[in-house]
Design brief:
Elements (H helix, E strand, L loop, with lengths): L1 H15 L9 H5 L6 H11 L4 H14 L3 H5 L3 H8 L6 H16 L8 H5 L6 H11 L9 H10 L10 H11 L5 H14 L18 H5 L16 E11 L4 E5 L10 E2 L6 E2 L16 E2 L4 E4 L4 E11 L9 E3 L11 H10 L1
Parallel strand pairs: 1-7
Antiparallel strand pairs: 1-4, 2-3, 2-8, 5-7, 6-7
Length: 349
């Protein structure tokens, strides 16, 4: 049964595989062209919590600028963080650099094909290790992302809510993973979830698994997978100071490596506190005529909503900040800022 299902899906994938800048097509793969583990790893890290449409341009920029893992390992941290700006979940960028440097220093610049060795690399967890082992090295490891969870839940009509359903869904996914072409199969089942077995209005009529799909037969497909209700996100508040010197230089700081937006460029400001607490009274980073800008910046992170209040000042040529540093216009790109800091800049103008 599992062999026939995987064969059906691979036949579908050979015709309908999505074109991705990091992917080797099924025809090229069968012609002997192997995927580059570096590009597989890069794409999988970028795709965590981010859509394919958003990742495409970032992936092209990164691989154009750093075409090999040795190039990325030798890059300046600030350059990598700047290119990552706007992609979110910035710990991924820090781990990207750590992992690249570990592969170069500990594995002679080559990703290990061994699943256990992959798990020991910085920033690589069970999902990413399985994806690299499967897609790059054609090993039969099940890759369980959100698309695959949805496909497995519907195929087997599993009503246990996520995340409690993950072990059962992984078991089903692993049972279906073939030993022949497991890398293509992993991408095929992800494509099936992304293009056919979609969250809303799944196209069951053209699905290669429409006949064996239990949820389709039972009429429960649209309600699966079920999810445990999320708790409301708390709201936090903070203040940022946007200062510009007479020569056009901006007052900026690099945030500490650890924590949210770690290692990213940003505006000096306060801590972010729960909305039930008073806004922290933080002194400006240097003397100046700081004016509160009308409005507020609103941004949502994974675990909370943030509201930032913005103060702006034109600073004298001899301004001596006790926080941050002045960056001349030629050395500053607003695109190097994370999204929330760009929102603050937009509000200040």
């Amino acid at each position: 049964m599992s062999d026939s299902l995987s064969d059906q899906l691979l036949d579908w994938y050979d015709v309908h595989a999505r074109e991705m800048p990091w992917r080797v097509s099924p025809a090229d793969r069968q012609a002997g062209i192997a995927p580059d583990p570096y590009r597989v790893w890069m794409s999988e890290v970028m795709l965590q919590q981010t859509t394919v449409a958003t990742v495409r341009d970032y992936f092209r920029r990164f691989t154009d600028r750093w075409p090999a893992i040795s190039d990325l390992a030798a890059a300046e941290d600030a350059d990598v963080m700047g290119e990552w700006a706007g992609l979110g979940y910035y710990a991924r960028a820090r781990n990207l650099l750590k992992c690249a440097r570990a592969v170069v220093s500990d594995h002679d610049g080559l990703f290990p094909a061994d699943h256990a060795a992959l798990l020991k690399l910085p920033g690589i967890g069970p999902y990413t290790a399985a994806a690299i082992a499967s897609i790059a090295f054609d090993q039969p490891f099940a890759v369980l992302d959100g698309n695959v969870e949805r496909v497995m839940a519907r195929l087997h009509n599993i009503h246990t809510p996520l995340p409690d359903a993950k072990p059962a869904l992984m078991e089903k996914a692993q049972m279906l993973t073939p030993r022949v072409r497991p890398g293509d199969y992993a991408q095929a089942v992800m494509d099936l979830g992304a293009t056919i077995c979609t969250p809303r209005s799944p196209a069951c009529g053209i699905c290669p698994w429409r006949e064996p799909c239990v949820a389709r037969a039972e009429g429960t497909a649209p309600e699966l997978p079920k999810k445990t209700p999320k708790k409301p996100k708390p709201v936090r508040h903070g203040t940022v100071f946007i200062g510009r010197r007479a020569d056009g230089a901006w007052l900026l700081e690099t945030r500490p490596d650890k924590g949210l937006l770690g290692g990213m460029l940003g505006w000096p400001g306060s801590d972010w506190v729960d909305s039930a607490l008073p806004l922290p009274e933080v002194p400006p980073p240097c003397a100046g005529d700081w004016q509160v800008r009308a409005g507020e910046v609103r941004h949502t992170f994974t675990h909370f909503h943030l509201i930032l209040h913005v103060l702006k000042a034109d600073l004298p040529a001899d301004a001596a900040p006790d926080r941050g540093r002045f960056v001349l216009p030629g050395d500053f790109r607003p695109s190097d800022l994370p999204t929330v800091m760009r929102k603050a800049l937009d509000l200040s103008e």
